[in-house]
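Lab notes, practical 5.
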Amino acid sequence: MLNLETRYLGLSLRSPLIASSSPLTASPARIEEMEAGGIGAVVLPSLFEEQLLKEEIAERSYKDYGGALEAFPKLEEFRFSAGAYLDHIRMLKSSVGIPVIASLNGATPGWWTRYAKVLEEAGADALELNIYSVPTDPDKAGADLEMETLDIVRLVRAQIQIPLAVKLSPFYTNVAHMAKRLHAAGVNGAVLFNRFHQPDIDVERLALRSGILPGSSRDTRIPLTWIGILYGRVAIDLAATGGIMETADAIKVILAGARAAMLCSTLLEHGTASVGQLREGMAQWMERHGYESIEQWQGLLSQKNCADPENFERAQYVAAVSSGSA
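Output from the prediction step:
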């Protein structure tokens, strides 16, 4: 009998498919549909550092003299207020049987991290910390940026007992070393990778264009590479996010070593019914290849277990460029 169950962040999941943070996870009805289709867990939309600061300002009649928050959405434009977010967690915990992972999104160490404890008290099974910081100061060293990230993580970890995952950028000097330092700071899992906003330019209007491009299967290449390198080397659970559009995409990242495949673009594009289709596709693939459980093939093609580990390293790049296939 096929078994798609796995564990992520110490949580038991009915499948390795997780609905990542998106407008769909703000809807109890959509979450219930995904649960019926076999989703393993859901990550809720984020509470933002800037949102929490604005709510504090509104409550205490402070004024943002620096104007740093002017470009950020007005409070009414956020999907949830902090209070409504807590109600959303409580309601879900009483209506669905899958793990509910809360999300905090921030860029700087500060008091906003105290909301981690509040989310835990509301019933969240785990917390995903989305550290979204685009460095633009040419005088700020990479080591300083890494220390800021670790400071945020330590502040959050000190607040909570539930499992903690960190959604990382792919732009660290050494992703593997950063993952090791996060584990030492008490992190249970790493989500690879955060996709930063990338503006476009309208050449006729001479203006920047905003917007997020939908994912494609090619986006899995970077997380697949680093998950394959990290598997078995760093004692944290790995989750892949970005570009998991089809069954093959989810299978690939798990073969590389991921414990979970995060879904977003495919859910927004194809609807919640795609969860059942992906789950069924994975089951059919396992049956064709003679696997009865996820554990039998997770990490099979990681660098640690791959018959040709150089595929993860520079040697294959040199060979590809030399042959003209790059």
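Observations recorded by the TA: The first strand starts at residue 6 and ends at 8. The chain has one domain: 6-323.
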